[in-house]
């Protein structure tokens, strides 16, 4: 074996030595390479010395680590500002959604009572039909297809809904308003507490090869 | 027999935080504070700046947590944020800290030496300072691309795979560059590696 070939062989084993403690897939030495390395180390004093030196260097670098200031975590957690996304988290939605469901149930109950009066035997279908009519009337009004003003809408509603159903509809509308206002208020409070943040998601950050 | 406790992954912790368990962010801080502070310290060469910037990085990460894409590893993401913050900091101001002997280093920057261990006595403390300075010098003397990888690997404790993702390099290139970087470091630190 020539001197040059020997040097290349040693370089290869030395490169493997830096990987011998790796365990992750892709970085760890293959079992065959590991066996070959061990066999080489048995017969090569220079590579054994290299292994010892690398071990010492790892230890030296490990010792050079600094400790984290005491209380770092607690200070950080105490001063952690609210994030914009917290206003959108499920926890923040729980109360408005619960209120919404409760009011919705009350509205459905009123509609059911009304439809039971007008269409006995089919309370659910009656309720759904009344609700459908109310929404279609609202949609027509919103699209400007109804010639009348809000007074006209009122008259139209009167023609399809009983007083109890009208109350139910009003409750539903109020319910939506409460929900919208709660969410707007929460978003406003959260936004006021945080500074703008740059988008630094994976693949969106700046070049990772930026240099000093 | 005590049942084995399975630690949640970083990605599971993120999910819990996004579901409203804000206090779980403390677990992520526990996992990454040492690694981030050490990584930033090696780049900024100031203990105080490293802590300050690590805090900023954690806050930034928390603020942007809903934008985290779980297809990527959390460790890669947080170190990318830290890397960008460090580069910003280095660009924003020249590092001026009190040095051991008050002289600027080869880059024209004044350097902060590592604090001595008070238990080692006067000789040990001096030796410790010398060694800390030698390690810093050796790392500082590496070309930037090697220095970054050594710091990510030995002080940020990132896996080869994470480094490859973070630096957008093939895994083989990372292995090769780290090998070369360690060879250079070994030569520079030779006097501290003998018996």
Quick overview of this protein structure:
The complex is a heterodimer of chains A (212) and B (195). Chain A is mainly alpha-helical. Chain A is built from eight helices and no strands.
Describe what you observe in this structure:
The complex is a heterodimer of chains A (212) and B (195). Chain A is an all-alpha fold and 212 residues long. Helices cover 70% and strands 0% of the residues of chain A. Chain A folds into 2 domains: 61 residues, no CATH class; 110 residues, no CATH class. Chain A is elongated and about 105 Å long. Chain B has 195 residues and is mostly helical. Helix content of chain B is 63%, strand content 0%. The radius of gyration of chain B is 19 Å and the shape is globular. About 12% of the residues of chain B have low confidence. Classes of the chains: A mainly alpha (212), B mainly alpha (195).
What share of the residues of chain B lie within helices? 55-70%
CATH A-level architecture of the domain at 1-95 in chain B: Orthogonal Bundle
- List the domain count of chain A as a whole number: 2
Name of the CATH class of the domain at 1-95 in chain B: Mainly Alpha
- Based on secondary structure, the structural category of chain B is mainly alpha
Q: Let me know the largest β-sheet of chain B.
A: none
Distance between the termini of chain A: 45 Å
Q: Using CB atoms under 8 Å apart, which protein chain pair has the greatest interface?
A: A-B, 54 and 67 residues
- Please report which band the strand proportion of chain A falls in: under 5%, 5-15%, 15-25%, 25-35%, 35-45% or over 45%: under 5%
Shape category of chain B = globular
Classified in CATH, the superfamily of the domain at 1-95 in chain B is RNA polymerase sigma factor, region 2, helix turn helix motif
Q: What's the alpha carbon Rg of chain A, rounded to whole Å?
A: 36 Å
- Name the helix and strand elements of chain B from N-terminus to C-terminus, one letter apiece: HHHHHHHH
Q: What's the assembly state of these chains?
A: heterodimer
| SS elements, strand count of chain A | 0
Q: Kindly state the number of beta strands of chain B.
A: 0
Beta-strand percentage range of chain B: under 5%
